[in-house]
Amino acid sequence: MGSSSITQYLLPVLVVLPLGGALLIQLLKKVSKLISDIIANFILVVLVVLVFSLLNNPVLVYKVGGWMPVKGIPVGIYLVLDGLSLLLLIIINMIGLISLIFSISYMNKFTNKPLYYTLFLLMITGMNGVVLSGDLFNIYVFLEVAAIASYSLVAFGTEADELEASFKYQVMGTVASAFILLGIIIIYSITGTLNLADIGRVLKDKATETPLILTGILFLVGFGLKGAMMPFHAWLPDAHPSAPAPISAMLSGVLIKAIGIYVLVRIMFNVIGVTPIFSNMMLYISAISMTAGVFLAFAQWDFKRLLAYHSISQMGYVMLGIWLMTPLGILGGLFHMLNHSVFKSLLFLNSGAVVYGTGSRQLKRLGGLNQKMPVTGGTSLIASMSIAGLPPFNGFWSKLIIIMACIQSHHFFLAALAVLVSIMTLVSFLKVQRYAFFGELKQASKDIKEVPFAMCFSMILLAFLCTTMGVLLFPGAKELFIDPAVNVLLNGKGYISLVLSR
Amino acid sequence: MDIYLLVKTVILLPAIGGIICLFIPNRKRRLIEIITLTLIIINLIAAVNIFLTGNQRVVFERFPVAVMDMQLDFIVDALCAFVLIGISFFGVVIIVYSIGWLENIPRLKEYYTYILFTIGMSSGAVLANNFIVMLFFFGIIALLLYLLVGINNGDAASAASKKTLIIVGSTDVLMIIGVCIVYYLSKNMTISEVSIPVNGILTGFAFIFMISAAFAKAGAMPFHTWIPSIAETAPVSVLAFLPASLDKLLGIYLLARLVLNVFVIGTKMGFLLMFIGAFTIVSAVMMALVQRNLKKLLSFCAISQVGYMVLGIGTGTPIGIVGGLFHMINHAIYKSCLFLCGGAVEKETGTSELEKLGGLVHFMPVVCITCTIAALSVSGVPPFNGFASKWLVYQAVITKATATTGIKGALLWLFLVAAMFGSALTLASFVKVLHSLFFSKKPSGLNDIKSPNWFIKIPLIILALLCVFFGIFMWFPLKVFIAPVLGGDFIYFDFGLWRPVRATVLILISLGAGFLIYLFRYVRTLEVKDVFVGGETLDEESIRIPGTHFYGPIKSLSFLKGLYDRAENGYFDIYNIGKNIASNISGALSIIHTGILSTYLLWILAGLVVLLLISKLAD
C-alpha cells in the first residue's frame, strides 16, 4: 500500500455505505414504519462525520481490490480524494443530511417513503462515487446511478406534470450521457487508458489537437447539460420544481454541481488541460447562463420554478468565477458553489414548507405567511438575502470576490454583467418576499400552522450556515475548507503526478 | 476612555441590545423601551466621547485579515465623529418619541430591535476605514431599512419596502463594483489611504457607481423615488428616523467621504454634482407643492433639500462643503421635527390628508409652534438654521460662478437661481401645510382632539429649539463640528453680509413692533358678520378653504400639466423604467421557452455545432 495512513480505507465506505443502506431499507421496510427514517438518517450522519474527519488530509488514493500499478501504469480502479473532491463531499453529504431531516416530516404526505429513501441514498451513492472516482468510466457509471435515481425522484409524485418533467429530463439527460460516453470513447481510443491521472500522463500537452478539442466540446455539452448551462438548460425549470421539495433542494443544491460542474472542471483543469479558446468559451457561456437565467426567473410566479431559473443563473456565477482561472476567481467560484448549495437548498426547503402549509406555490395565491409561519418566513428572508448578495450573509462574500476577480483580470464587462445579475436576483427575491411572506394574509390561509419540528430544524440549520459562512474566508477556516480545493485547480496537471506517486 | 472600547461600544452595544429585545415578549413593552432608551443614551455618551478623543485610527489587529485585504479597520476623524453624534442623537429622539407615539403593533419588539441595530450598523458604516467593512455595514443598513419600512403588515407596505430595498440595495451593489475598481487601481482597501483622480472612463464609472449609493441613501435624484413611496405606509417615526435624518446623514457622509477623501474630482464631475443638486431642488419641490398628503409632501420636500447638500458639496469649495454638511445636519433636525409633528397630528386625528385637517392650533399649540419653527427653517427663513446653511451654499455657488466664465458660468448662475427659487417654493408649500393643519377652519368631522403626550412633545421641543439655536448661533456648530472636517479655521470662512445675532435682534424688534400694532387693532371693537351670498348665510363647511387648493392652478399650466401627469404615474421613476425594461427582456426570453422537447433537443445540437465552429474558427 502506497500511503502509510489508514484513512484511505474510508474512501470506499463513502460509496458502499449509502449503497448498502439503500438495499437494507428495501429489505427491512416491512419491519417498522420508522425503520427507513432511522436507517437513512443514520447513514447520512455517519457519512457527514466521515467526511469531516477527512479534512486536513493530503491527497488520498485508494486502489480498489489492491490492484497495484504495473511499471507505474495503473491497472485497477482508483478512488482519489483531494481538496476539490472533499469540498464536493462536504456539500453532498451535508445538504443530503439536512434534506433527509426535512423529509422525515415532509415525505409523510407521499405514499412510498422507503422507496424514496432508497432512491435518495442511491443518488448520494452516485454523487459520492462521481467525486471520488479517479477513473473516467467509473465517473460515467456513478453519474448514471445518480442521474437515474434523480429521474425517478423527479417523477416521485406521479402527477401528470411531474411525469412529463421527468420524461423531458430523462431524454435530455440521456442525450448528455451519450455525448459524455462519446467523449470517453475518443479519449480511450487516443490514450488506451481510462484512469484520469494516466490519461493526463499520456496526453501531456496535446490539448490543442483536434480530437481533444472535439472531446472538450463533447464534455462541455454533456456536463454542461447536467450542470444546466445555457443553452443546454431547458430540462431544469421543469424537472427541479416537479420533484418533492427536499429532492429539489438536492438537485439544485448538489446534483448539478457534483455531476455537472465538478466533472467538467476536474477533467478540463486536471486531465486534458484548458486552452484559452475553451476558457473564453466557458466564460461567455457562463455569462449567458447567468444573465438569461435571471431574466427568465424575473417573470415567474411559481415559487419553485423561479428558484429553478435562479439555479441556472447562479451556476453561471460559479462557472464565471472558476473559468476566470485566476486564484481569486477560482476561490470566488468554489466558495459561491458552496454557498449556493446552502442557500438554494434552503430556499427549496422553504418552498416545500410553504407547499406543506398552504398547498400552493403560486406566489399570487400566497401572502402574509410571516404572520403564520415565522420560521419559514425568517429563514426564507435570510436565504433570499444570501442569494441576492446582501451582507452579512454568505452570498455577499462570494459575489464580492467574483466581481473583484472579474475586475482584476480586466473583464470589466463581465463584472458589470455580474452586478446586473446581482441586482435582478435581489429584485426577484424581493418579489418572493413581498408576495409570499409579507403583505396581506389571504383568506384561504387563515388557519395554517408552522411546519413540524424536523422541517423547522433543517431550515434553521441552513439559515445559520447562510449567516455564518462568511467566516470561511478568514485565515484558519480558509486553509482548511477552501484553499485545498482552490489549489487543486490552480495546480492543474500537477494532479497527475500527485495521484500516480501514491 | 479607551478608544477601542468606545468603538466597540457604539457598534456592538446597540446590536446586543437589539438581540436582547427580541427575547422579551411584546406585552412587556415598557421593559423593552427602558432597555432601548438606556442603551441608546449610553451610545450617545460614547459617541460624544469618541468625538472628544479626536482623530485616531482604530485597527483591530488581532482580527485576521481576510481575502482582498479586508481588515477590521476604523478611523475617527472630524467628519465621522460628528455624524456619529448625529446618529445617536436622532436615535434618542426617535426612541423617546416612539414610546409615546407607537401603537401596540404586532411586531413591536422587532421595531425596537431594528432601530437599535440600525444605529449600531450605521455607526460601523461611518467609522469604517476599509471599503469592504463599509460595504458590509451599508448592506446590513439597507436590509434593516427594508425591515423597518415594512414593519406594518399589508400589501401597500410590503410593496413600498420592496421598492426601497431594490433601489437602495441595487446601488449598494453598484458601490461594490466601484470599490472593486478603486482596489484594482490603487491596490489598497484602506479608505483613508486612497486618493484617486477622476480623469478617465474607468475612474469616472467608479465615481458614478459609488456616488449613486450615496444618492440613493440621501434620496437625491434619480434614486429618490423610494421616499415618496414609503411615505404613506411606513410609521412616521421610521420616516423621521430613516429617510429624514439617518439616511441623509449616511448618504451625505458617504458623498463627502468620496469627494473629500477617496476621489479627487475634477471640474466635470463637480459640475455634474451641482447639476444634479440644482435639478433635484427644483423638480422635487415642484412635486411637493401639489401634494395632498402631509407625509408625501414632506417626503418630496426632503428630496428637494438633498439638492442643497449635493449642490454645496459639488462646488468643491470649502465654504460649499461646509454649507452642504451644515445643511445636512440642519435638515435632519427640522425635517425629523416636521415628520414627528405630522405623526402627532396623525395620531390625534387619525389622518394625514391635508384636506381633512384644520384648526389644530387650538388643540395642540406646542405642535403648532414647533411645526411652524421647523417649517420656517426648511423654507430658509432667517434666522432659523435652514437659512444659515442655505446661505452658505448660495455663497459657495456665487463664489464659483464669479470665478467661472462662459456658458459654464452662466449655468452656475442658473443653479443659484434654481436654488433660491426652490427655497421660495418650499416656503410656498409650507404655507399650505401650516394653513391646512393649524390655521384654516376646523372641518366638521374633526372632534375631541387631545394634545399629544409629553413623550411626543419633548422631542418636538428639543428639535425646534435646535432649529433656533443653530440658526442664531450658527458659529457654534460650524466651529465645533463642521470646520474641523476641512481641517481649517472657522474664521477663515466668509459669510457675506449675514450676521445672525444682529439680524435676529432686528427681526425680534420688528416682530415686537408688529405685535404692538396687533394689540392696537385688537383694542378697537370689531364687528363680526356671517358670510353670506345673495342674502343666504352659508354654513361653516362650505366657506372653509383647505390649503390643498392653494396651488391647484400650477398643475393645469399647459407646459407643466403633461409633466405632472407623467410624474404622478411614475413615468420618470427609475424603478418603473427598470421594471419595464426587465419585463420586456424576460418576455422575449420566455417566448422561446416553448416547453416542447424537440425544440430543446434542437438547442442542444445547435449549441454543439456552434461551439465546434467557434473552436475550429478561432484556431
Describe this structure in words.
The complex is a heterodimer of chains A (502) and B (619). Chain A has helices spanning 10-28, 35-53, 83-106, 113-132, 136-154, 160-191, 196-203, 210-226, 236-242, 245-272, 276-298, 303-323, 327-358, 369-372, 374-388, 394-408, 412-437, 453-468, 477-481, 483-491, 494-500; strands at 60-63, 78-81. With 502 residues, chain A is an all-alpha fold. The model of chain A has no long low-confidence stretch (mean pLDDT 88). Chain A has one domain. Chain A starts with 9 loop residues before the first helix and ends with a helix. Chain A is built from 21 helices and 2 strands. Chain A has a two-stranded antiparallel ribbon. Chain B is mainly α and 619 residues long. Among the domains of chain B are: 1-189; 574-617. Chain B has 22 helices and 6 strands. In chain B, the strands form 3 sheets. Chain B has a two-stranded antiparallel sheet. In chain B, a hairpin with a 2-residue loop joins strand 5 and strand 6. In chain B, helix 1 packs antiparallel against helix 4, helix 3 runs antiparallel to helix 4 (108-127) and helix 12 packs antiparallel against helix 14 (385-403). Chains A and B meet through helix 6, helix 8, helix 11, helix 16 and helix 17 of A and helix 5, helix 6, helix 21 and helix 22 of B.
Quaternary organisation of the protein chains:
heterodimer
Question: What's the number of structural domains of chain A?
Answer: 1
Radius of gyration from the alpha-carbon trace of chain A, in angstroms = 22 Å
Order of helices and strands of chain A: HHEEHHHHHHHHHHHHHHHHHHH
List how many beta strands of chain A DSSP finds: 2
Chain-averaged pLDDT of chain B: 84
Give me the number of helical elements of chain A. 21
Identify the overall geometry of chain A.
Answer: globular
